[in-house]
Amino acid sequence: MPNTQDLGLETLGIARREGGAIEVDATLRTSHPRVYAVGDCTTLPQLVYVAAAAGSMAAENALTGAGKPLDLTVLPDVIFTDPQVATVGLTEAQAQAAGYVVQTAVLPLAYVPRAIAARDTRGLIKLVVDAASGRLLGAHVLAAEGGEVIQTAALAIECGRRYGFRVEDLRQLLFPYLVQVEGLKLAAQTLAKDVTKLSCCAG
Q1: pLDDT (tens digit, 9 = 90+) per residue, 14-64?
Q2: Burial of residue 116 (number of CB atoms within 10 Å: 0-12, 13-18, 19+)
Q3: Is 48 helix (H, G, I), strand (E, B) or coil?
Q4: Coil, strand, or helix at residue 196?
Q5: Domains and CATH numbers, the chain
């Protein structure tokens, strides 16, 4: 729970939600036009890299009036369990609720060479794809080293938003053999091919 008691926020009319979190808009401004807030005391996701990015942006907005929004559309998140749980972008349900017609690919780690070599095939990789554009909307990984895999998926989603990068493009990329992130390519391939019939490194 955010420790925002006894700060005199009510004197300035700074709005807080039930539980004490300070409400901020996309530019990190509170309900007081001259006060900005970031970090775990706010309604932002409680992740250290969000707080760091927000701090820089809030300072710039407060000092220069730039009014830049903090874009958290592509926000990777990792739970460091064993195996790790990593996610970025939309879930299948969220994508459908947003009006997308989706394709999904679910690849058990038993088909990922790195997982086989490491003798740890617990988990899976799931991709959520916009059927109309072929863009990656979300990726969800349950795997050892899942946190290392998810950033590549985040880049694929962001490049799709900005430049039209598609899952087909992901399938064409070269991935080093015996890295866990190769599972993203293999998962993408399952949208068009039977992954059980592919040899290693197959395109």
Answers
A1: 999 989 999 999 999 999 999 999 999 999 999 999 999 999 999 999 999
A2: middle
A3: helix
A4: helix
A5: 9-64 (no CATH), 77-195 (3.30.390.30)
